[in-house]
Amino acid sequence: MDFRLTEEQEALRESVRDFAREVVAPVIAEHYEKHTFPYEVIRQMGKMGLFGLPFAEEYGGMGGNYFTLCLALEELARVDSSVAITLEAAISLGAMPIYRFGTEEQKAQWLPKLVSGEALAGFGLTEPGVGSDAGGTQTRAVLDGDEWVINGSKAFITNSGTDITTLVTVTAVTGTRPDGSKELSTIIVPSGTPGFTVAPGYSKVGWNASDTHELTFDDCRVPAGNLLGERGRGFAQFLRILDEGRIAIAALAVGLAQGCVDESLKYARERHAFGQPIGNYQAIQFKIADMEMRAHTARLAYYDAAARMLAGEPFKRQAAIAKLHASTIAVDNAREATQIHGGYGFMNEYPVARFWRDSKILEIGEGTSEVQRMIIARDLGL
């Protein structure tokens, strides 16, 4: 196995790294503090083709694959996770369901603008009273003639309320199976549909420059043709989407963890205490060495999961391992980076303060750490 990048992959990584440092870094702190969405940054990311990385050229994509997306996410998250999660959710949760399961008509209608970054889409899965138990979905959709009538609510939905959000795919109960279990299906709900209400943005601990809302559906009517994929396959669809998304979140977590190394190295060389740079002290050296070790091993984990996915091999367990490990070490590295910075690490003017606040959600979003452990244990036969 060779985990070294190709020349093309390395060029992409360098391009996104430069963009993150030169375009994102100078403006993101203000967006973060004011809780504003960085539209201009997103527009430039669209022009770079980042939203089209894993999509076929026939839909306006770059013809790459999921691993190239992960490389971009890692480099963005080394500077800021709000921008990185906007890209991750826009692709893996927004456009990918349509790309994987949509009809040719649906793809032709929605994908070009999503792939170009001109528009964003959300993935309406989680509900206020359900959380990780997606099988307990309460939102319902009833077929009334040639329309679906949707009632219910969704929580913590990324990219669902921006000025360029064009749709949300919604999982809903559409019937009952012969065994009495719920029939779950996925339905496309365009933004602005009557009965579809987007609540004000959440007041969040972190990811303050990303877009997150609660959604409500009150007799919301959409055409029957907005069914995404086969009726009753919604559960299987979102499991597939989340398996892939866990690799992407792992890459984002690795980026945050590596960003903690970057900032700690910089600070350890600049900050003097007791007559010399604090980087001369073994206590600081060992902390940073451990942080680098964590980021490196977590990177190998998501590289492995992505390689299995692209080879068409089973990857569910490896994706869960990558997401679990990367999110755990991201929190560890953020804590250590804050400690290395001392009092300055508690000040929002330093990136590590953002890293510390942003790291915790990685152990929760797109499958909690407990869910990852469940997946791993079940795949081992327990």
Automatic annotation (TrEMBL):
Domain (Acyl-CoA dehydrogenase/oxidase C-terminal) ranges: 232-380
PROSITE patterns: ACYL_COA_DH_2
Record-annotated Acyl-CoA dehydrogenase/oxidase N-terminal domain positions: 6-118
The protein's enzyme class: oxidoreductase
Cofactor(s) needed by this chain: FAD
Domain of life: Bacteria
Family to which this protein belongs: Belongs to the acyl-CoA dehydrogenase family.
Stored PANTHER family: ACYL-COA DEHYDROGENASE (PTHR43884), ISOVALERYL-COA DEHYDROGENASE, MITOCHONDRIAL-RELATED (PTHR43884:SF12)
Record's protein name: Acyl-CoA dehydrogenase family protein
Organism: Micromonospora azadirachtae
Lineage: Bacteria, Bacillati, Actinomycetota, Actinomycetes, Micromonosporales
